[in-house]
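Narrative of accomplishments. A recurring question from our advisory board has been how the design workflow behaves on a single, concrete structure rather than in aggregate. To address it, we present the structure tokens for one chain from the evaluation set, followed by the sequence designed for it. No filtering or post-editing was applied between the two.
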């Protein structure tokens, strides 16, 4: 069982990362290297979170073995027995043999650091580059990252020169490695506290507000108004970019050296624009370099970059608008069904996607009504209370985890109580719930952050390559300090507990932070206390109010701008609802007409077709009989019949020939 637990978690975490990446990324349209790099970054970070509780339980067992081996003891199967006191150190079910965890952590940690500091920034620039060849994209990525990499090399070089010149410093390679790890963890801890302070308040509050149907509906109306503005802006931007592409496509002809670049740009355009540009293009006209001024390859690369960005943004807003409409319609249905006497959930519109038969069998309209109208609000309230309790415990422990006598951190108290009885299952569950909650607070904030249109994780396969890679960078930089912070909260880090005990395998690869005492005894201990200030600021929505004052509309119940946007969104949803109803009514009428008259029309049409076939076959046989001896093939017969029809003169219906008197018409004839 020792290796089975590690293997199962490795496989489970891989499929979890793959599922999340499939939800946000697009495996069909995005580059494979982007998918692989992002999947590797997410997988390594999630793996650290899931494997760390196993490291804690294994470390507690190893400490017990060391304590037992220091006095006369005897071994008995899966546990070690201390002779005088008969104390038993049971081996945990998930025990990992010695020597595996240090190698595992070393590979995982340094791979994630290579991704976040070297590979992923380079791939970000490569993905956003508008170059038309691999060499051109690599060149652009190197130029954009020259300042980024040069800054780190300059700082590191200056530090090495200072250490070499100063005789008071006698640093070895292990100490230099520890300093580099400490610098990376310090930057990550700075960002970690900011994201954690937001998540500890926003996650319980969002679940509490999720029980309020009126609140969710008003917020959906607000989102609809904002999204419609963004959607119109994206369409206008796409039209402008497509107009520039059309001009470039008309100026650069088929035999121009840069025509291949133009064709590459046209392939990235939507299908309707490609057809429109293909009709207006005249490829038989040669280009004249002396008469026209043609764009350079650099300007075409810039245009290519703009096309990729505008098409991605336009597609994302279109998909998000349809998803938001479905959410608004569903919330309106919930509000209508709350007062239903039949206690059966009735949808205004049928689902456009085919539902699973198993779900339809169990999730009946009656079950749906009880869940949506009665159980779900209470479930969200209870969940919000539980999450708020966890948040309070985290805030208290962050402010008191440096105290060892007495132990004030609640997480450390729980672990030490379980350590006395060697209840490894309880230890692993407590560690997993603690680090999992911390990870949810931090990672969910990363998924919610939106930096204008440059970084935005959109679900339903609408996230661009730049945002996916940037999220991988953030995860790799946040996870190591998150794990160190967790070990400090549980007093499993010797730097915090001030005990001369065996450290965890994860802490051992980080090195001793005593090399930088001002970071180990100062920044790592007192900076996490700022989470209290950030939680208070998030609770009173100070960040939202500041963004609202700067002109970025945020959902606030006491704002006139918010109420205006809610009314606007409500009208937009009402308009789309009427449009959807008219479409469904038209489809129902066509379906009823087809069911009522479809069989009759089909039979009439089949009889008419059968009669026409008989008449055409009869005329063909009569026409072929007298001409069969004069013709050599069926093609000659067809040509003769066509010529006879062409020789027939049409009747002349002139005004002079038209006469109402039948006698005159007869005499004329």
């Amino acid at each position: 069982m020792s290796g089975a637990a590690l293997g199962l978690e490795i496989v489970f975490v891989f499929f979890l990362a793959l599922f999340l990446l499939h939800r946000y990324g697009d495996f069909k349209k995005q580059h494979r290297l982007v998918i692989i790099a992002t999947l590797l970054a997410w997988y390594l970070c999630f793996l650290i979170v899931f494997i760390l509780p196993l490291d804690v339980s294994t470390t507690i067992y190893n400490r017990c073995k060391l304590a037992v081996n220091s006095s006369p003891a005897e071994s008995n199967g899966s546990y070690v027995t201390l002779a005088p006191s008969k104390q038993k150190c049971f081996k945990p079910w998930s025990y990992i043999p010695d020597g595996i965890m240090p190698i595992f952590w070393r590979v995982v940690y340094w791979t994630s650091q290579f991704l976040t500091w070297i590979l992923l920034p380079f791939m970000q620039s490569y993905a956003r580059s508008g170059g038309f060849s691999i060499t051109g994209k690599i060149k652009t990525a190197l130029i954009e990252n020259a300042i980024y990499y040069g800054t780190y090399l300059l700082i590191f070089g200056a530090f090495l020169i200072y250490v070499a010149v100063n005789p008071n410093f006698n640093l070895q390679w292990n100490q230099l490695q520890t300093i580099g790890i400490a610098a990376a963890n310090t930057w990550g801890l700075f960002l970690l506290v900011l994201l954690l302070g937001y998540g500890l308040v926003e996650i319980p509050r969002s679940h509490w507000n999720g029980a309020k149907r009126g609140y969710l509906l008003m917020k959906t109306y607000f989102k609809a108004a904002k999204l419609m503005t963004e959607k119109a802006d994206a369409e206008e931007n796409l039209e402008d970019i497509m107009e520039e592409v059309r001009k470039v496509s008309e100026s650069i002809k088929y035999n121009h050296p840069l025509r291949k670049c133009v064709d590459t740009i046209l392939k990235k355009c939507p299908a309707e624009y490609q057809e429109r540009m293909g009709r207006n293009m005249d490829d038989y006209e040669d280009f004249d370099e002396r008469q026209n001024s043609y764009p350079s390859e650099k300007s075409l690369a810039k245009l290519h970059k703009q096309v990729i960005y505008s098409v991605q943004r336009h597609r994302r807003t279109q998909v998000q608008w349809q998803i938001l409409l479905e959410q608004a319609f569903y919330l309106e249905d919930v509000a209508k069904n709350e007062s239903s006497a039949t206690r059966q959930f009735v949808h205004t519109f049928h689902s456009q996607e085919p539902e699973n038969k198993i779900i339809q069998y169990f999730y009946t309209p009656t079950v749906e009504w009880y869940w949506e109208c009665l159980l779900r609000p209470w479930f969200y309230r209870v969940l919000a209370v539980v999450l708020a309790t966890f948040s309070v415990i985290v805030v208290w422990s962050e402010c008191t985890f440096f105290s060892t006598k007495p132990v004030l951190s609640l997480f450390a108290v729980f672990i030490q109580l379980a350590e006395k009885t060697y209840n490894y299952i309880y230890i692993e569950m407590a560690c997993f719930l603690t680090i999992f909650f911390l990870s949810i607070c931090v990672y969910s904030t990363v998924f919610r952050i939106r930096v204008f249109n440059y970084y935005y994780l959109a679900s339903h396969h609408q996230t661009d390559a730049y945002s996916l890679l940037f999220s991988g960078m953030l995860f790799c930089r946040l996870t190591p300090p998150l794990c160190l912070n967790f070990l400090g909260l549980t007093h499993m880090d010797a730097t915090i507990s001030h005990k001369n005990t065996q450290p965890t395998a994860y802490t051992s690869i980080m090195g001793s932070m005593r090399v930088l005492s001002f970071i180990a005894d100062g920044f790592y201990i007192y900076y996490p206390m700022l989470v209290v200030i950030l939680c208070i600021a998030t609770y009173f929505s100070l960040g939202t109010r500041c963004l609202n004052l700067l002109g970025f509309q945020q959902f606030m119940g006491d704002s006139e701008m918010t109420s205006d946007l809610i009314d606007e969104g409500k009208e937009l949803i009402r308009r789309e609802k009427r449009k959807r109803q008219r479409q469904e009514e038209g489809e129902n009428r066509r379906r009823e007409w087809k069911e009522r008259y479809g069989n009759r029309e089909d039979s009439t049409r089949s009889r008419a077709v059968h009669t026409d076939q008989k008449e055409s076959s009869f005329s063909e046989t009569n026409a072929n009989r007298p001409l069969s001896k004069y013709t050599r093939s069926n093609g000659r017969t067809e040509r003769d019949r066509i010529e006879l029809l062409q020789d027939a003169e049409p009747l002349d219906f002139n005004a002079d020939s038209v006469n109402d008197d039948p006698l005159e018409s007869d005499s004329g004839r």
